[in-house]
Amino acid sequence: MPIRIPRGWELPESAATPEHLVLGRRKALGLGGLIAAGAALPWQGAAAQEAAPMAAMRNPAYRPERALTPEKDATGYNNYYEFGSSKNVTAAAARLPQRPWTLKLEGMVDKPQELGLDDLLKRVSLEERVLRHRCVEAWAMTVPWTGFPMAELLKLAGPQSGAKFVEFHTVADRAVMPGLRQSWYPWPYVEGCTLAEAANELCFMAAGLYGKPVPAQNGGPIRVLFPWKYGFKSGKAITTIRFTDKRPVSFWEQLQPTEYGFWANVNPEVPHPRWSQAHERLLGSNERVPTKLFNGYGEFVAGLYAGLEKERLYL
Ligand code: MTE
Asked: Which residues form the signal peptide (predicted)?
């Protein structure tokens, strides 16, 4: 990934937001842990999005074991190449319409369909998960997402027995995404995983962040999350989920296969060809902490890779 290593002074020094403040804010919104799928309000501009609730009961199974990243850091330091290679894409991404939004389930499934996002959000059971996110560039954040397990979409789609892989296609809108003019990138941004990875309980579809709709710069209105993999696997603004018998070659893998692979599981002992993966820098505090195998989620996902030791699982 052609990345620019940020200097220390580019990030504000601030302490992590204490959890009670985040919860207190949600109480103030009158949500107090209740599902508020009314969150899925029509897109009415950034101000309306700021006020819209998108909260759900927190699932305690995914203990963050770290302080939450301050919201302003998690939503103000982003990778979203469709809007350029700067980390500050908030203003540019605000031009991406968030509604109406449909999600297509297609390919090798019994029930191909197109789902309106608001209808979908009413059909699934929403939960909040505080998850660690580890970018391949060696920065990390810990943030509360609202959404539902990808397994729920598998149930809706009914993958056929031949389907072995899942592709996540993300929006490519030339009218609002200046990065698409950079023709050396293999647009659109497509990511993929095995069907077993998609069915794993950790694979999550997020429509909310910090109790509000996911801001456009973080992948709104809906993105996928693979918290045990490097962040580039977690595609933003998903439009189509395609089930296939062929292993997808994803965006970064097409661009630089020697540096970015299909599996991309986090492993501190396997360096990126150009830098170490042993530590990560926490957004907000700038603290440097050791990286963990599978980003600390081995208890949920290690079993997925039994017998695959010959694969480049950590690139
Ligand atoms: N999805 C799209 N469509 N385009 C991107 O450039 N960047 C990826 C991933 N998903 C990216 C994307 C990378 S490299 C990372 S680290 C995460 O999004 C960053 O997510 P964040 O900005 O919410 O922290």
From this structure: none
Q: Give 211-252 pLDDT, tens digit per residue.
A: 999 999 999 999 999 999 999 999 999 999 999 999 999 999
pTM tops 0.90: no
> Cα–chain-centroid distance for residue 24?
25
* DSSP designation for 109: B
Please indicate whether residue 143, judged by its CB atom, sits closer than 6 Å to ligand 1. no
Tell me if 237 is assigned to some domain. yes
The CB of 79 under 6 Å from ligand 1? The reply is: yes
Q: How many domains does the chain have?
A: 1
What range does the domain containing 58 cover? 18-305
In this structure, is residue 11 part of a structural domain? no
Q: How far is the CA of 219 from the centre of ligand 1 (A)?
A: 7
The stretches of 29-146 forming alpha helices (DSSP H) are: 46-51, 71-74, 90-93, 117-123
d(CA 208, CA 77): 17
Does any domain span residue 315? no
Give the separation between CA 213 and CA 179, rounded to whole angstroms: 24
Residue 223 lies in a domain: yes
Quick one: which atom of ligand 1 is closest to the CA of 252? 14
**Does ligand 1 have an atom closer than 6 angstroms to the CB of 170?**
yes
CATH number of the domain at 197, please.
Answer: 3.90.420.10
Nearest to residue 92, comparing CAs of 217, 276, 3?
Answer: 217
**What is the 30 CA–ligand 1 centroid distance (Å)?**
31
